[in-house]
């Protein structure tokens, strides 16, 4: 499964947020693997359509899609030089598919900031700098090797030029994710060299309770990291929300001017950043969301349920959630001509409710 690595300076609220992520008891019951590794937090992707499907099909259970987060402790200034936890830290980031940086915006005299003052701009820069320095080290060796190679083999020339272009971006103090494409860097090719800053970044701003409804502040912080996605939350509040019933949690959120918990937003943003989407299945046993990559075809999607479904794929019976919701039952959707048969070239759309036909 794809994972998002959580990073950030010490004392910004990473552990607090991560504890909230792993406190999800409802989820643990359905996904036992979620509690096995203490460093992995699994968050359900909120999806109101599942409750409606369960109503239509009389499903016993609802199984949402999930997003996995890994706690990557230990970034400090100097991490790229392998100080302290540095090497382990970099190895952990290498394994993550996206990087979620927690940035402190809350003011609290009792919580020491490593640099002595709360400054989202400089915190973000510190982390970026460590990752950029690590990439420059990786590139130093790679560029030398690719230069030699390209003198012997013409085919290696583009890889060499790509590495040099990446080096320029990093030397200018920018991540490849933020500035690589504009500078003509092929990010996939660069990622193949193990460059960390090619990974998509998400930023979580850990706010005070009274900053939660401050949309001007959100806009200013969001601008710091645009076009990357930003999520605004209060890590301590997220912990408290986890211990409440859904109704109490919603009431609490609304009292702070929010409609959705920060972790729900994070799950959504994470899912999107990883290039994922869902399709839905429903029956008396369960209504369920399945995770696929954007652009996958029907047989590929079937393979997520079982490899036999993909191998023996014949066709997919599909109705969009909106049509099914409006019709109120499969029979009514069918009568209205809203249920389609799709073949092996069909590209799945978000909200497709599917039943696969296959040979065994
Ligand atoms: P980490 O080092 O980044 O993992 O940070 P922790 O999660 O351990 O948090 C450091 C300290 O900040 C702890 O005392 C937390 O209780 C406190 N803290 C975390 N989030 C918030 C917050 O949103 N507001 C305030 N005031 N304190 C927080």
Strand and helix layout:
Layout: E1 3-7, H1 14-22, H2 25-30, E2 40-44, H3 49-57, E3 61-63, E4 66-71, H4 86-95, E5 98-104, H5 120-152, H6 157-171, H7 176-179, H8 187-191, E6 201-206, H9 215-225, E7 229-233, H10 235-242, H11 246-255, H12 262-273, E8 276-282, E9 286-293, H13 298-305, H14 307-311, E10 313-320, H15 321-327, H16 330-335, E11 340-342, E12 352-358
This protein binds guanosine-5'-diphosphate.
The site of guanosine-5'-diphosphate has 16 residues, from α1 and α10.
Descriptive notes:
This protein is of the alpha/beta class and 360 residues long. The chain has a domain at 295-358: Ubiquitin-like (UB roll) (Roll). The chain has 16 helices and 12 strands. A 6-stranded mixed beta sheet has the order 2-4-1-5-6-7, sandwiched between helices. The protein has a 3-stranded mixed beta sheet with strand order 3-9-8. Strands 11-10-12 form a 3-stranded antiparallel beta sheet. Strand 6 (201-206), helix 9 and strand 7 (229-233) form a beta-alpha-beta unit. Helix 1 packs parallel to helix 10 and helix 5 runs antiparallel to helix 6 (157-171). The two termini are 26 Å apart. The model has no long low-confidence stretch (mean pLDDT 90). Bound molecules: guanosine-5'-diphosphate. Residues 8, 10-16, 106, 108, 111, 206, 208, 234-236 line the site of guanosine-5'-diphosphate.
């Amino acid at each position: 499964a794809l994972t998002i690595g959580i990073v950030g300076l010490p004392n910004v609220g990473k552990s607090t947020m991560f504890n909230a992520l792993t406190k999800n008891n409802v989820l643990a019951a359905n996904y036992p693997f979620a509690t096995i590794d203490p460093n992995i937090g699994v968050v359900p992707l909120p999806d109101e359509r599942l409750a409606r499907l369960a109503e239509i099909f009389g499903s016993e259970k609802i199984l949402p899609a999930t997003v996995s987060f890994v706690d990557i402790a230990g970034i400090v200034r100097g991490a790229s030089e392998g100080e302290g936890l540095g090497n382990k830290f970099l190895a952990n980031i290498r394994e993550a598919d996206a990087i979620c940086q927690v940035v402190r915006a809350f003011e609290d005299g009792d919580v020491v900031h490593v640099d002595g003052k709360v400054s989202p701009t400089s915190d973000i820069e510190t982390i970026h700098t460590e990752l950029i320095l690590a990439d420059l080290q990786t590139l130093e060796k790679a560029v030398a090797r690719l230069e030699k190679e390209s003198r012997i083999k013409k085919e290696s020339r583009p890889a060499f030029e790509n590495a040099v272009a990446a080096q320029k971006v990093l030397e200018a103090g920018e991540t490849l994710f933020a500035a690589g494409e504009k500078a003509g860097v092929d990010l996939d090719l660069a990622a193949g060299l193990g460059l960390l800053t090619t990974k998509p970044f998400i930023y979580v701003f850990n706010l005070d309770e009274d900053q939660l409804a401050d949309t001007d502040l959100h806009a200013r912080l969001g601008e710091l990291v645009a076009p990357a996605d930003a999520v605004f939350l209060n890590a301590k509040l997220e912990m408290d929300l986890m211990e409440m019933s859904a109704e109490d949690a919603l009431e609490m959120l609304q009292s702070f001017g929010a409609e959705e918990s920060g972790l729900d937003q994070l799950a959504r943003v994470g899912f999107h950043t990883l290039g994922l989407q869902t399709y839905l299945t429903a029956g008396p046993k369960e209504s369920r969301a399945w995770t696929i990559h954007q652009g996958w075809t029907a047989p590929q999607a079937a393979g997520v349920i079982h490899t036999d479904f993909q191998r023996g794929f014949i066709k997919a019976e599909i109705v969009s959630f909106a049509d099914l919701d409006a019709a109120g039952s499969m029979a009514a959707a069918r009568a209205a001509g809203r249920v389609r048969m799709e073949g092996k070239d069909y590209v799945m759309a978000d909200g497709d409710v599917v039943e696969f036909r296959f040979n065994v």
